[in-house]
Amino acid sequence: MGARRLGVVTFAATIVAIAGCGSSAKPLTHAELVSKANAICKTVTTRLAKNSIKSEQDIARVAPELASFEQKALSELSKLVPPMALESDWKQFIAGAEMLAENTSKLGEYAKANNLKAAGALITSSETSQRQMQAIAKRDGLSECQRVA
Predict the structure, then answer these.
(1) pTM for the full predicted model
(2) N or C: the chain end with fewer CB closer than 10 Å?
(3) Among positive and negative, which fits the CA dihedral 67, 68, 73, 75?
(4) Considering the domain boundaries, does residue 111 fall inside one?
(5) Positive or negative torsion for Cα 117, 119, 124, 129
(6) pLDDT tens digits for range 88-143
(7) Which residues, in sequence order, are CB contacts of 45 under 8 Å at separation 6+?
């Protein structure tokens, strides 16, 4: 029984090690990161431009769909492995994008509940994050991502 249990543990550890090796991607070059990130961000800017928001009802209607779309883009951006020189910036950019996607979802909920006070605080928080993301995008040459942030 002890040898069998050890074999199972060793097998499980091997599977975990193999899975871990498969997920460690080679860092992209700066040009590759810019190209791939800008392509993803362009889909977001195109999607955002299609939505006209003029009222709380529009926010309540559109925000859940936008939040879902932003989460998908965030997932794609999170898979990109930046070059070492941009690793810190990239982590900050991804954290900001994650917060904005969450805030978009919350904004829709607040609009449905007609909770303008909470929505206002959320918008202020989002604007601060957007400014930080824009600075990172500008510094790192992510022109399309600068437009989204």
Answers:
(1) 0.77
(2) N
(3) positive
(4) yes
(5) positive
(6) 999 999 999 999 989 988 988 888 888 878 888 888 888 999 999 999 999 999 99
(7) 144, 147, 148
